[in-house]
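Sequence in, structure out. Go.
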Amino acid sequence: MIPLREQDYIRDRFERELEGKVKFDYFTQKASSIFVPGREECAHCQDTQQMLVELAGLSDKISLTVHELAQAQEEAKKLGVDKVPGIVMRGPANRALRFFGMPGGNEFPNFVEAIIAASKQKTQVGKQAAKHLKKLKEKVSITVYVTPTCPHCPGVVRAAYGLALASAHIEASAVEIGEFPRLAQQVGVRAVPLTVLNGRTSIAGAVDEEALAEQVLKEAEGGALGAPPTHGGATSEAAAPSGPSPSSGLILPH
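Output:
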């Protein structure tokens, strides 16, 4: 799954930069040879699990626990997982970072960075973002809808994860929406990145850490109106395909 040369590169980074232990809880669904009405097969569960197995094998500080979603409903509810593939990453601070789908394409290097960030005992954010986070009194969930080829998505996911690691009041998830076409229709995703706060307030386009922190605070105070996106408000691509994304090819960090 991950080329051997790139595994060597990531192993070296993990050896140098991982501080504490990082735990993966991976929720999957076994393929079924029997047709079950209403059940959707998981096109990327096996590949995602293989990728996680390889990543976990690159450092003794990374552990992986695999759960069959249908048989681990209590644990899934506890960790906020309701679909597969579902990844929950936790480090020393025990703050969960979730990724639904396979973190391939442009999201893979970002996923490696998230592992390193999660291993830290404490996460630093920008001065203004930190001011916003200190004022938070209520919990806010951040969900970022992405696709593997979106150039602006990794930055928004990185900002969401960073805020979640810096504040116990924030929960952050990324969803590779190409793998969940029905969800894309339900949420009304037309382009990515799309960030949704508490399931109700949408922010279209790329948004940086400071702006996202500001919107999180407004949402917590009941007054979020949607942040003006950065990068000229550009969104990258339609994200509501009629079926699973054809490819989640890895793009390795260099």
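Check: Confidence is low (pLDDT under 50) at residues 224-236, 238-247. Residues 163 and 175 are 17 Å apart (CA to CA).
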